[in-house]
Please model this.
Amino acid sequence: MTLFKLFGFAVRADMSWFIVVVLVITSLSTEAFPRLYAGLTPIVYWLMGIVGAIILFLSIVTHEFAHALIARRYGIPMRGITLFVFGGVAEMDDEPPSAKAELLMSLAGPATSLLLGAVFLAGYAAAVFMNAPLSVAGVVGFIGSTNVMLALFNLIPAFPLDGGRVLRSLLWMRSGNVRRATRRASQTGSALGLILVFGGIVQAFTGNFIGGLWWFLIGMFIRNAALMSYQQVVLREALQGEPVRRFMSPTR
Model:
């Protein structure tokens, strides 16, 4: 479903994203905000949860827009931005033309999230200084800290996270071989995925079933994405420059 268009990019939402919206709002309203800011009424917590979720997802879209704008600067065709169960992704129709292009494109998202985090945390400090309502300060502080955590998580050097793409670009610069760089970067992504899967299983068996389930699903997603990314590079290199007729069987 297309939500809106901005700067020529369509922002779409997979149906799984709407499930996450409900889960995030519910989690913030019934668990996170009541635990952090006691003494408010249920309706205030729900308003905080709704506003916090909206600003959080706008922050994710801003993160992806940063990727997309740098990609456009280097002539990488973009299909748009899609929100889905694990967050958001700027969809490229092709690989970056150079290691430098990938490096700058990969760093743009986390840098944007860090900037947003700094702005919102400064806003939180100002709200506390001016004795603003606890509900307002709480939402601003939550958005600030979440953006910082989003940036730091994405900088983990595990492909296809932004940090993994930074790692691939550096390996690409060093070796001049994008296939070899992708293989090594995807191995780190696969390893991180396995760590998250194992951690999720441990959490599930120690009482944190919901948290463990999320870790498990995110780990499986990262592992599969890392393996598929390498397979795509191998396939692209195998097919590049070859005529279509080589892969066709004539029929009568």
